[in-house]
Specification:
Number of strands of chain B: 18
Order of helices and strands of chain B: HHHEEEEEHEHHEEEEHEEHEHEHEEEHHE
Radius of gyration of chain B: 23 Å
Radius of gyration of chain A: 23 Å
Strand content of chain A: 15-25%
Helix content of chain B: 25-40%
Strand content of chain B: 15-25%
Number of helices of chain A: 12
Strand order of the largest sheet of chain A: 1-2-6-3-7-19
Largest sheet of chain A: 6 strands, mixed
Number of strands of chain A: 22
Distance between the termini of chain B: 77 Å
Oligomer: heterodimer
Largest sheet of chain B: 6 strands, mixed
Shape of chain A: elongated
Number of helices of chain B: 12
Helix content of chain A: 25-40%
Largest interface: A-B, 30 and 32 residues
Structural class of chain B: alpha/beta
Structural class of chain A: alpha/beta
Chain lengths: 443, 447
């Protein structure tokens, strides 16, 4: 029986043999960006590659998601390797779709390529029979929590319950047979040093869709007959800002509204103003408390002008916890690939990811490959090093899968046994549902 | 018997002879400004001067007010000539009291002098058969509705009922024996070109005494444990500003106020913030609507921060109605003094934006409230300075004394005519009931 090290070498070689083809997957997706729950082409491309690679899969999970499966033939835990299908929307990104503004300004296009690379690497290296358990290859929709009104409409139509891909995967049972999970996100040299960064935690989040309702009137001729919903929104935003001094540093609260409709005609008093916001925080308690303060501010805006506000609060993502034991294994593999000096240990990050939700149910890791330049979610975020962004990132994950599932899946079994899930799936679903609220205030 | 014109000429000559004395009174008051209900020295000075003129009077009316009489030879109506005792607070004013910031930035110091001037001119007619009825000479406190907390405390202690001078004098019955009233206010060349301006109206108002109640905490180490009452006030005032587009120009609404306490120490989250505000408008309905908007915004500030707000709404002034027939007498006399071309007459709908408790009096009896343009600068500003004391004191004293003669001469025929043709808008008891109904207090807890 070959050593684990030999198995890892074989997997790396197998990935390198497919290197050009895998990088092309990433650059193809880059050219066809699609926001969450609309990733039709990206989903089809992933399916085509699964078929080419002879990896059995299901598709249409949570509208556009896919789940491939590699069997080792030996009993053991299931390790999932995930890639995210969706793009952001960043109008002036050089690779933005000119009609939809969709753009891969967060590097998700590399993630699908990495996930496929792990799959084809493990398969073609012929190492699977030497492992125990299974490897699930997941292409997950909608990590970016955007287009809230659109997704909320899908929710109302019964096509979704939650507005993020992984919460939907959990709800639909697509992770029921998964025991451990990993994915690698790209990052920028502007944010991180070195080549691979890992560890730390992420903020959790609730999302809000808000409508201020006033009364239209001629803004010049009869403003006294109107009720200005835009002013209600302005007051609410001022009030939200006035709360900021009450946030504890350690709670890393982030509240950042946008106005998606601020009035229809400049000569008419705005009567229907739409706002979207996130309320983020390091702990569930922290962001739920901040959320109550935001609600108070929204009500105050409506109250001040004598209008109405409809507040829809949608469960977002839970804070991310990386599993330390999995990180140790991953860290050793990453160091072997890029050198110890190119590894960065992360602290708390104030963005959010639905990998946080998964981390409440099973051990996960969510490292970063520092392959881009520019600002994450900015128009200058460009993956420069595809070797690192796809192939090295995939190798580190594939090697970690080998470590976890080799020797009768000893490490995977140990980690699973030691892991105390903060929530069961049932508790998770009930927590998420408790965050959902639709309220209308006139005061 | 002397003709009316002879009586007026005699009156003018008497006032003229006392010019220096009268202007000195005005300047003495200018140098010793005292805000409303605290005009102790000013009242003492007025009392001394009335004694000097041999005019019996009562003092201590509505705390500092004074009322003396000159009685005619036969019974008849009583015409009151009023002067206001109180100053504003404008700390940067050149004549401001360095300790209190009190300053006569509205020219009231001239009013007391002109009231005494009218007394000087009319005293000679005491007991005279040419004059029927009486002249009431009234130095009234607290026309400027300021120091709201101070007055609210006096109200709570039972020392004040209504919280401005003429309002309280009405309540106390000091106007019960008065049938008609007049006073002249100074004005500035920045507001009026003419030497005398007549007519027009003023806004009514309600006064707001507001306390935002939060929770103090160390502003550096535990701001999350505090509830910031100053932020509540800021949110409320921002919200109030957004309402301005809903106010109709014709309604001359004015929403304004000051923070009298904005926190106790910079390193503690402010837990007790005080706001004194004013809601002005052209009529009761407009004021009620704007006041509703003010209250909505105050509550919204508290709600946003999870604070409380205590809102006291204090009955303020009613819009001014100048009595047209009385105004015609005054106008003819003023024209005689300064020439027709130096008069301006504003239509009754012309709203000056400000407010006066002479408006309250105008609801229950015929009054006039003309202006004499004797100052430069901005009313209530640090640069409001009386430049022409003859026009500020002597001419208005003469014009008022002459108008009293018009009204009360010939068995007070003209005063009786004015009273017969003017229907008061409300009775005293209706007035008091209305003002009582406008006093409200509400504690709103934002959560």
């Amino acid at each position: 029986m070959p050593s684990t090290e030999a198995l890892k070498v074989a997997v790396q070689e197998a990935i390198d043999r497919r290197g050009q083809e895998l990088i092309e997957v990433a650059t193809t997706i880059l050219q066809h960006p699609e926001p969450g729950f609309r990733e039709q082409k990206t989903s089809q491309l992933t399916a085509r590659k699964f078929r080419e690679f002879g990896i059995p899969f299901q598709d249409g999970i949570a509208l556009t998601g896919l789940k491939g499966m590699l069997e080792t033939g030996n009993a053991g835990p299931t390790v999932a390797v995930m890639g995210e299908l969706d793009s952001l929307k960043v109008l002036d990104h050089p690779h933005a779709d000119p009609t939809t503004a969709a753009a891969h300004a967060c590097g998700h296009h590399c993630q699908i390529a990495m996930m496929l690379a792990v799959g084809i690497g493990l398969k073609e290296a012929g190492v699977l029979p030497d492992l125990a358990g299974r490897v699930a290859l997941l292409a997950v929709p909608a990590e970016e929590y955007i287009e809230i009104a659109y997704r909320d409409q899908l929710r109302r139509e019964g096509k979704l319950e939650f507005l993020g891909g992984k919460p939907e995967f959990i709800r639909l049972g697509a992770l029921d047979d998964v025991d451990l999970a990993m994915m690698t996100h790209t990052s920028s040299t502007q944010t991180e040093h070195g080549k691979i960064a890992y560890g730390g935690t992420n903020n959790g989040i609730v999302a809000k869709h808000i409508r201020f309702l006033g009364k239209a009137a001629h803004a010049g001729g009869a403003p006294h007959q109107g009720i200005n919903a835009l002013n209600a929104a302005m007051i609410a935003m001022s009030a939200i800002h006035a709360q900021r001094e009450t946030y504890r540093d350690e709670d890393t609260i982030r509240i950042h509204p946008i106005i998606t409709q601020g009035g229809i005609a400049v000569s008419s008093v705005p009567a229907d103003v739409h706002m979207e916001t996130f309320v983020r925080g390091k702990t569930i308690e922290a962001f739920l408390t901040a959320n109550q303060q935001v609600d108070r501010a929204l009500r105050a805006g409506a109250m001040a002008v004598g209008g109405r506000v409809q507040v829809t609060t949608l469960p977002g993502y839970l804070p991310l916890q990386n599993n330390p034991s999995m990180l140790d294994i991953y860290g050793a593999n990453a160091a072997a690939l890029v050198g110890e000096s190119n590894i960065t240990q992360l602290g708390h990050r104030t963005g959010s990811t639905d990998m946080g939700d998964v981390s409440h149910l099973m051990p996960v890791i969510h490292p970063y490959a520092v392959a881009a330049t520019g600002t994450g979610h900015g128009s200058d975020y460009l993956v420069q090093d595809y070797e690192l962004g796809v192939l090295t990132a995939a190798k580190a994950m594939a090697m970690t899968v080998v470590d976890l599932l080799a020797n009768g899946a000893h490490h995977a079994r140990t980690i699973k046994a030691d892991y105390q899930a903060p929530l069961t799936k049932a508790q998770y679903l009930s927590l998420m549902r408790s965050m959902f609220e639709e309220a209308s205030y006139t005061e | 018997m002397a003709t009316i014109e002879e009586l007026k000429a005699q009156t003018q000559a008497l006032i003229e002879a006392r010019s220096a004395w009268l202007i000195d009174v005005a300047k003495t008051i200018l140098a010793h400004p005292e805000p409303g209900f605290q005009e102790v020295n000013t009242a003492r000075l007025v009392s001394e001067k009335l004694h000097e003129l041999g005019i019996a009077h009562d003092t201590g009316l509505a705390l500092t007010g004074i009322k003396g009489y000159i009685r005619g030879g036969t019974p008849g109506p009583t015409v009151a000539v009023l002067g206001e005792l109180d100053s504003l607070r404008v700390p940067g004013h050149p004549h401001a009291d360095p300790h209190t910031g009190a300053a006569h930035a509205c020219g009231h110091h001239c009013q007391v002098a002109m009231m005494l001037g009218a007394a000087v001119g009319l005293k000679a007619l005491e007991g005279h058969a040419a004059l029927a009825g009486n002249v009431a000479l009234m130095a009234v406190p607290a026309e400027e509705f300021i120091d709201v907390q101070y007055r609210w405390n006096l109200h709570q202690e039972g020392k004040l009922g209504l919280m401005a001078g003429k309002q309280e004098l009405i309540r106390l019955g000091a106007f019960d024996d008065v049938d008609l009233a007049m006073m002249v206010h100074t004005s500035s060349s920045s507001a009026e070109a003419a030497k005398f301006a007549l007519g027009g109206t003023s806004n009514g108002h309600v006064v707001k005494f507001v306390q935002f109640i939060g929770k103090s905490a160390h502003a550096g180490s535990a701001p999350h444990q505090g509830v910031n009452a100053l932020q509540a006030a800021m949110v409320a005032l921002n919200a109030l500003n957004t309402q301005r587009e809903t106010l109709r120009n014709d309604d001359t609404v004015r929403l304004h106020g000051i923070l009298t306490s904005g926190g106790a120490s910079v390193n503690a989250i402010p837990a007790d913030v005080r706001y004194e505000g004013r809601v002005r408008g052209r009529n009761a309905e407009v004021i009620a609507d704007a006041n509703m908007k003010m209250d909505r915004c105050l509550r919204a500030g508290a709600l946003a921060m999870g604070a409380k707000v205590n809102i006291v709404t204090i009955p303020g002034y009613l819009p001014m109605v100048n009595n047209q027939p009385m105004m015609e007498f005054f106008k003819r006399n003023a024209a005689q003094l300064v020439g027709e071309s130096n008069l301006a007459t504003h239509p009754p709908t012309r709203n000056r934006g400000g407010s006066t408790d002479m408006g309250d009096l105008s609801q229950i009896m015929p009054v006039i409230h003309p202006y004499t343009t004797a100052a430069t600068g901005t009313g209530h500003g640090a640069d409001y300075i009386i430049q022409d004391y003859v026009q500020a004191v002597i001419n208005p004293a003469k014009a008022m004394a002459m108008t009293v003669i018009d009204l009360l001469a010939g068995d007070a025929a003209k005063a009786r005519e004015v009273l017969a043709t003017s229907t008061p808008i409300m009775s005293k008891s209706q007035y008091l009931a209305l003002q009582d109904s406008r006093l409200t207090e509400e504690l709103y807890e934002g959560q």
